[in-house]
Amino acid sequence: MKNKKKIIISNRLPIQIERKKDKLIIKPSTGGLATGLNSAFDSSEILWVGWPGIVPKDDAEEEKITELLKPMNLLPVFLSKEEIRNFYEGYSNEVLWPICHYQPSYIHFDREYWSTYVAVNKKFCETALSIPQSPDFIWVQDYQLMLLPQLLRQENKELNIGYFHHIPFPSEELFMNIPQRKELIEGLLGADLVGFHTFADSQNFLNSCKKILNVPCGHNQLKHKDRHIFIESFPMGIDYDKFVHASSLPEVNAIATQFRSHFPDQKIIISVDRLDYSKGILERLRAFLTFLEKYPESHSKVVLYMLIVPSRDKVSQYKKLKDEINRKVSEINSIYGNLSWTPVLYFYKSLPFEELIGLYLASDICMVTSTRDGMNLVSKEYIASNTRSNGVLILSEFAGASKELVDALIVNPYNRTETADCIYQALIMSPEEIHERSEANRQIIQKFNVQHWVRLFISRLAETKAIQRDEWARRISDKVFSSIAERYRKSHNRLFFLDYDGTLVKFQNHAQKASPTVLLYNLLDSIIADPLNTLVIISGRAQESLSTWFDGRSYYLVAEHGIWSNFPNFNWAYKKGLALHWMPEVKKIMEKLADQTPGAYIEAKPYSLAWHYRKVELGLGELKAAELKEILNPMLNDYGLQLLDGNAVIEVKNTEVNKGKAALEIAGHIKADFLLAIGDDITDEDLFKYLPQSTISIKVGSNKSAAKYYLDQQEDVLQFLNQLIIKQ
């Protein structure tokens, strides 16, 4: 059987098309992504979808381009000039780019931008789904296509979709400035795996999901529309071997020698950037000016060689930036330059690959001063090319690469004095220290190369899909429900264990407001109306609450996880012999944290204490809960206590009791041939673990659990129970 295609979708195809005298010249791109994918997979397996970089003159040329690209496994998405202007130059680069690079003042909103962005994402979706064979996976690349994962998911729920965000993801406060923030977040959550360069970016995205969609998030995952989605960091690398090989070529070394000969008595600082306000070019020039002011002994001994690759210079912001760079370079050279020395050499052009490697080889220092960068591969290219490990890397802390290349000289580009001092430190650094730092960074770059990045992401995408399939296998489908209903119908002695909060009723911001509804009373009464059924509500609630709501009804109640019970004669009794001397000390600790946390409150039960933070600001509650756990953990063994980390609540109680032990004791008396247990919380895991293997155990929510099955949400529990007893 022919292998399924692996579909890559990006804004641009990995090619360049030139029109020369009515002839189309196609050249392959040498970009890192194309290199990494082609080296990780057989090229025949990959189908690449994207814009070919040219607007066809007519339908005939469009068809011709499509046919020319077909043997290369490239599928073009053709865009009009208006679509390019509004989708790419407009929404992508005048809204998303400045927000993601922490420059909200550069944002320009236009009504046409968003509608075109939506339309173009739909066009990419239609093109990708025009392929007859279902793909092995679809990997969507970058911010121009943030809506695409969800559009694909809407058309085919079974697709295996990954998304990678190649630029920074801003803090949730900044991302909230985008009017279409909800649509963008939901767009990305159509993917099974969402990747970022750094851990900080992944956490910013998770925080935005919490804030905008109010979805519960774990450390690297969240649940949205019945699917677990994983959010992780995958720092992108370079084709390490390619740069090492190039640096060994005689012609490249000749370029380096010739370049070096122009500066026989000077240290060379190189910087390579695309023209962009996120690259910190002006900040670099200001720091270099400060360096010249502070260290006059370095005059005539160092040169800053700046190579800036043209980019979007017709856009007003970029045109203005280019003019400011020109003025700053002229200012520095006019103040400090002389007939024999030009401090800053500035070139606005791109260089062939071999020439660039030659410059890397010849330079003593590489300077990267991004004010915000997803990764910045120049820093990695410099280390890889400098095979003698005799070059120093000065790297901005705001570049993603700084999280890996920790042996570089890390600077804050906004701090001119600090950056100037780093330049001086790099100039006087001993050869031994230079070599040690460079080699440490080289090992990172060699291991975490672009091939490793591709393999890691694709492997994790496959694992994510396997986890989702396992979840779906545990989900109560129609087939599973029919099987449970059949067991229920054939049984003669049935026992129900039902948790309360999050299972029979929704969570409320204040615990006392979650009282039973008329519909719930009717359901519970319907269950016990059948003489074959015994019902137990087993909860962490205080005995007083359950007593107020349910006393006088013919079903059993277990409160405070088993400390109180009205089984078997409907008279309340508590488990004797429980130590209480720990409560004042724990309560004092909880009160101190509650005083520091607006919205937090303590629920004092006779035999346990609960610290609630459901009403606390998102993020702060989790932070203070973690602090509380850290303080309490050392006390648990000394006092024989158990800490229960529940849904927006931290509860402390004696280890002698739990829901599982209490339920097992009741089950031993009832001897049921149909045993059902439903719960939503970590406290219910004891219930699932202690009861017999034959128990039909159901968790509310698809999180990892000892339960055999799960239901998506609390409302599903009531529907499940209603249908079960009706089937009878």
Automatic annotation (TrEMBL):
Pfam families for the chain: Glyco_transf_20, Trehalose_PPase
InterPro entries xrefs: Glyco_trans_20, HAD-like_sf, HAD-SF_hydro_IIB, HAD_sf, Trehalose_PPase
GO biological process: trehalose biosynthetic process
MF annotations from Gene Ontology: alpha,alpha-trehalose-phosphate synthase (UDP-forming) activity; trehalose-phosphatase activity
GO annotations of cellular component type: cytosol
Family statement: Belongs to the glycosyltransferase 20 family. In the C-terminal section; belongs to the trehalose phosphatase family.
Name of protein: Bifunctional alpha,alpha-trehalose-phosphate synthase (UDP-forming)/trehalose-phosphatase
Species of the source: Sphingobacterium athyrii
